[in-house]
Sequence to fold (309 residues):
Amino acid sequence: MSGMGKLLTAFMSKIMVFNPEKNKDVLNSTLKLGMDGPFLTPIGYEWKKFKIGSVPCESFQKKGAAPKKAVFMLHGGGYIGALGNIYRKYSKLLVDATGAKVYMVDYRVAPEHLYPSALEDAVECWNAVEEEYTANNVIVIGDSAGGNLSLVLMQKLRDEGRPMPRAAVLISPWCDMLAAGKSYTENYPYDVMFGYKDKQFDETLRAEMLASDIFYYFRNEKDRSDPYISPVYGHYEGFPECLFTVATNEMLRSDSETIVEKINAAGGKAELYCKHAMFHVYPIAGNICKESKEANVVILDFMKRKFSE
Fold:
């Protein structure tokens, strides 16, 4: 790991703690994720806030441009944290690489809103973006809970016989609300956000985690194996080409591995970029360290290739 990668990982392990044993107030600490300062629009770009129906949205593009392609972004935050500046900054990377217009959906989150409110918001906004650009000119991108929401959105579009997006990028998607994948156990001592160093994940800890507030958004759902809740249990016929990224030491690693395998087995095409032992959703950090920069080269090359096909 690079020096900056080590520093950033150590920093994130202190401020982004989702393990209920280490963070007894995970709900309120996660709520703070989107509560940051004003965003200063870089010179030469346009950043707008608006609503699609009742859903707050934002867009980011080069100033004066009229893009014919769009990126549909669903942010992370455990279905608790709101849209924050880190996603606005990441949008600049996407715009610079693709020339597309980025749409960010500030969907409803817990504790005020529970499942399926975020899906309802995502569908409403997708409908508007699809109408303007057509699905084939849109790439979906989501990280963590936003990766979950991206996959659920695409399952719903597929199930309803609707056009699918051109492609999708899933950054450490959180897809198993039963925490049953093998990496939840194997990587528990190594995951700096969700795990606990030198401890082993057993059934008692699994039950405690599933009952914790990090799952608040799904607290009223009896069947968390529903693919619209846990996409890892879904089927993947008819999916567009997808790129998944995940850190080697993440508890959520098997979520991506399983879905990539399912997409490919169903006759689709999916690739997994799993190279660095880093923190959860580390590519969203932009080009701040060698590891995130390398991951973003892969992500942006994928998006440019898909838009050019």
Q: What stands out?
A: The chain has a mean pLDDT of 95. The radius of gyration is 18 Å. The domain at 3-308 is CATH 3.40.50.1820 (Rossmann fold).
